[in-house]
Design brief:
alpha+beta; Jelly Rolls; 6-stranded antiparallel sheet; globular; disordered N terminus; secreted; Germin; Germin-like protein; signal; RmlC-like_jellyroll
Amino acid sequence: MTMANAMFLLLAAMPFLSLLLLSPSLALNQDFCIADLPRGDTPAGYPCKPQAGVTADDFYYRGLNTTGPTINPFNIGIASAFVTKFPGVNGLGISAARVDFAPGGVVPLHSHPGGTELLFVVEGTLASGFISSATNQVYTKTLYKGDLMVFPQGLLHYQYNLGNDTAAVALSSYSSANPGLMILDFALFANNLPTDVVSKVTVLDELEVRKLKALFGGSG
């Protein structure tokens, strides 16, 4: 084989080599890594619990079998199976959550900086949508029992219950063990930024900002 042919083959193989090197699912060099939560998180994830101490319970979680804590004033309950509550998903690039909507319940505009979300409607009917970052285009759908909708990583999205007298339930899966959660209302009005600063950066009246800070527990 000539040097030129060898270089051509190497260049042709580069995309496949990159995939093997960079794909998290292919880069695992051990079966699992149960998160050792007390040792703290790192940029590479939680360190592994010693394998001698791993049991079947590390791969099992009952936290989604009931409604999670209520988030006011939105009339929803959220139970999560992120790595901080389900250490078995550490390093596997997956996690889950359950959302229970009371009549009129709303998941307000929020984002998951660390992962894409796939939402499945278990019961009820939901209005749902997300906003693109490039053009602020809004993509909305009405979701019925059995429907799926995907929300790309980092984009603002929402859901709310369309049933006036009925509850709704949805399950979400994520492409990260710890996708993160930033709710826009809390980010804006549960902080200690001075009211005049929030007013300037949101173009809201200062009186309205004070009302919202009081509602969401902010100060300043």
